[in-house]
Specification:
Structural class: mainly alpha
Helix content: 40-55%
CATH class of the largest domain: Mainly Alpha
Shape: globular
CATH superfamily of the largest domain: Cytochrome c-like domain
Strand order of the largest sheet: 1-2
Number of domains: 2
Largest sheet: 2 strands, antiparallel
């Protein structure tokens, strides 16, 4: 190849790849509003972003995989834990984690109720961004897998078959709904909510208990009620409830299809 040909190749290649880069950049900016749901950026979301930066949350946490790696990635935290849990947690993190058990402890930030609501609004907006699978894996508080759980936030695992139990188990491990972010299926291992190792047995006993005043008449009905109306019967515990109300998200009746609820119940009924 002559010098002239080399020069022409360089200029042509630079022009082609430069044009491709510009086209991809324009296309990215065209898609950003849709991918980020920019129409949902409310004054509360903006104020919450300011709370996030003011408190230097990024010094420990990550969003969209960016930030420090000392504490969990919070990209999907509102979908995994729910607003009720986050409000109680931000009020007093020491009720949920201990330095002795978890090897690290989030400081009490002394946020006002308004600041907490704004921060949750910001995190909820972040959680609804179409990240196309990023970050690829979570950063757990303990730095190790919790028995009876899977990597929360990992790519959805497909069901092994079309059997409702298999579909329900796959849904249980997926975010959303994020069941495995709060519940372990190992005996005696409470993550945020109680262990579901013997969920079917406990459900049958609870329906027969004199202090149960819900509408369920059997174990399957109780499990369904617990998913759709977690305040029908509130399980007491420092990380389970606050002010007499369950910290479990209460919007699954709107976010889950009836078929998905059936599949989750089918899976939970196998845990005895």
């Amino acid at each position: 190849m002559t010098k002239r040909q080399t020069r022409a190749f360089f200029y042509a290649g630079t022009g082609v790849f430069g044009a491709i880069f510009i086209a991809l950049t324009i296309d990215s900016h065209r898609q950003f509003p849709t991918l980020t749901h920019s129409d949902r950026i409310t004054p509360a979301v903006i104020a919450g972003k300011h709370v996030w930066h003011r408190q230097n949350c990024v010094n420990c946490h990550t969003l969209l995989g960016e930030g420090a790696y000392f504490a969990p990635d919070l990209t999907k935290i509102t979908q995994q834990r729910g607003a009720a849990y986050l409000k109680a947690f931000l009020k007093d993190p020491s009720k949920f984690y201990s330095e002795e058990r978890d090897r690290r402890l989030m400081p009490t930030l002394a946020l006002s109720d308004r600041e907490i609501d704004e921060l949750i609004a910001f995190l909820d907006w972040v959680g609804r961004i179409d990240t196309q699978g990023w970050p690829p894996r979570p950063i757990l508080v303990t730095g190790a897998a919790i028995p009876g759980t899977e990597a929360v936030g990992a790519p959805p695992r497909a069901a092994a078959s079309s059997d409702p139990v298999a579909l329900g188990e796959a849904l249980f491990r997926r975010t959303p709904p994020g069941c495995s972010a709060c519940h372990s299926t190992a005996p005696g291992v409470n993550v945020v909510g109680p262990s579901l190792a013997n969920a079917a047995t406990v459900a049958a006993q609870r329906v027969e208990s004199p202090d149960y005043h819900g509408k369920a008449t059997d174990a399957a009905g109780y499990l369904r009620e617990s998913i759709l109306d977690p305040n029908a019967y509130v399980v007491q515990g420092p990380t389970f409830s606050s002010g007499g109300r369950s910290l479990m998200p209460s919007d699954f009746a709107q976010t889950l299809e009836p078929r998905q609820v059936d599949e989750l119940v089918a899976y939970l009924m196998t845990l005895r």
